[in-house]
Amino acid sequence: MFKTLSNKFYDIKNNFFSSGKINEKNIQDGIKAIEEALINADVNFRVVKGLVKRVKEKALGEELIKSVKPGDQFVQIVHYELVELMKSDDEERLPITKDLTVIMMVGLQGSGKTTTCGKLARYLIKKGHRPLLVAADTQRPAAIEQLKVLGKTLGEQISEERGEDFEVPVYSAPQDPPPKICKDAIPIAKENNNDIVILDTAGRLHIDDALMDELLSIRKKTKPDHVFFVMDSMTGQNAFDSAKIFNEQINIDGVVLTKLDSDAKGGAALSIKEVTGKPVKFVGVGEKLDALEEFHADRMANRILGMGDIVTLVDKAEQLMDEEKAEEMYQKMVDASFTMHDLLDQFQMIKKMGNLRDLMGMLPGGLGVQMQNVDIDESIFSRIEAIIHSMTPQERDMPDIINGSRKLRISKGSGTKVQEVNQLLNQFREMRKMMQNMSKSGMFGNMMSGMGGGLGGLGGMMPGMGGAKQRSRRKKKKRKKK
Amino acid sequence: MFFKKSIDKIKAALAKTKKIAELFQIGRKIDEAFLEDLEERLIMADVGLDTTKYLIDALKSSYKDKEIKEKDQILTFLKENLKERLTQKGNELKLNEDGPTVILVIGVNGSGKTTSIAKLAHHFVQQDKKVLLGAGDTFRAAAIDQLEIWAERIGIDIVKHKMGSDPAAVAFDAVQAALSRESDIIIIDTAGRLHTQKNLMKELQKIHNVLKKKIPEAPHEVLLILDATIGQNAITQAELFSAATPITGIFLSKLDGTAKGGVVLAIQNQLDIPVKFIGLGEKCEDMEAFDSEQFVDALLSKD
Question: Where does this protein hold GTP (chain B) (predicted)?
Fold first, then answer.
């Protein structure tokens, strides 16, 4: 997320603001570099000018020159300004206070409205709500069908997770005008015992009066509690006009930025509040229905400045892992009784947490910035999973019993090479050893139990993998010599 | 190829935003404030920082050298400079003389692929060509239905599989069907994918390769659909997509919105990929061949 921008800030901090070469000219040049970085990231021109002016005043006023750590202090100033640009006044992203809450989603075509409706429904179900989806986009071919499929998929997902039937109803009436569809949906929701109604309205390629009239009419008839504008995070300079017009005409409450899992440059995230006065509430970070995150200005500023976002990382881990399981995993790590079963669990959990590169980007201290540049082959996860799946339960518990013929069987079963099976086994041993060492030296502290085992596994696994790769290369060299 | 009706449409769309040409109507000298104003307007048109800097530097030096004296010369100067940078690359499609022409359509989610395909199909049907669509977006819910509705409206054939099936298999079957039905044009839809998703980029390569099985020189055209409202990110999109599968042209969609699509300047310059079509509306006839002169005129237009 925002890789280009955070790379840039990282470079700027190192190039212009390291102690030793700090002087007024350096500061000026550094600020100029920031200005260019932000413009290149599609941040609105006027927003950039304002931000740069404030940063300059502060940086020169606070006597950065005399500071012991000018780089850090400078980052602090920029961080503060970034947060000010993006922050939302109310802490709660989506307060639900009534028996029936109506949420209206608006936006241009292709911004990701329909998918976001599905994601928001999932987010609310997770909080214990029962939403009704309303297909009011009668304009785009098959939009209704798309929402129906999403509702069905979501229902199946939740049923599977909860082990009991759960339905996400979708109301549609293609023959009716959209305002009527939306209005009719409300008594249906009440009857159906739904406490949330999510309206998926039509988008247009561009703003026209017909669309605005339709949306206004829906707004009037349903009196929504929240109106969200869905916007593509890759949007360029001009399209802020559309957000502005939507806000002026139908008064939005907040923005959902989509496709942040791309290499979106961050312009929309940084500009939207300043341009419209309305904050970003949620961000979409993937194609799956659980890929919706709450937006927090300070965390986003952290990510942009390469300071990582450990809070979101922990949040994600917590969401996916219950406390008991985390404790169990932690114990296993401490006494090194960690098996292939557990490794498989960990892999599956990490996969659920999202795109690996994005996860890495959340690591603090410049590490995130560097890790985002490392090429991560995500298919390695599926290969490792396949290998473990081809092991017998006994082998998973005691990988040490895996001999040559077992390895051959596993490699055949998983469609991988014997070398890959070897590599995994070596990595596993390495990991265990590391865990033993860590628990001996007391490195599993409060931090670990607080963070849940998942993270520890992630941290432990990565160096293990790298190390094993290098070693196998070395081995090859040795063999050649012989 | 087309009538030049688009200029009015583009101009109408651009009229909503601040015009660069507006600058020159006010009696002003070239000073710092003027240049900053110009910078703002160029950047707001998504022209990008590099091109903007280049233009402003060129303008400054011409002014110093006294090549430019009057303010109304500036507009001509900018236009000439931009046109030079956006030389027409030829927007003709490469058609297969013996057998069907295969067109692969790719792009990120929400860029307007399906609608653009409908526009292309309509365009070919107008030319009395027999068109067949391949519903290769097997991922997004109801994408197949959406394309099917268009096929019905235009009155052409479509080859589809179930949602979730292998898009490469759809592509293969579409080519097969086109050969046996003697179609002139096959347009293959693909699922929207973010250019940062490596495995999906690999899938694109697979589709690309499968198309060659029956017709070795296919696909004859690989069109990247670029949303004109996208900012500088469009450059990376074009870059990464063309790394996965060589792009033969860009279809700039949604140009009738508030966006000016200034980013194509950078794309043509840096990546040497021609813009072939522009999409101007929601109906299937709202498509034009790209004309660089017209585009620059609209970008800097006075009205």
Answer: 107-114, 189-193, 253-256
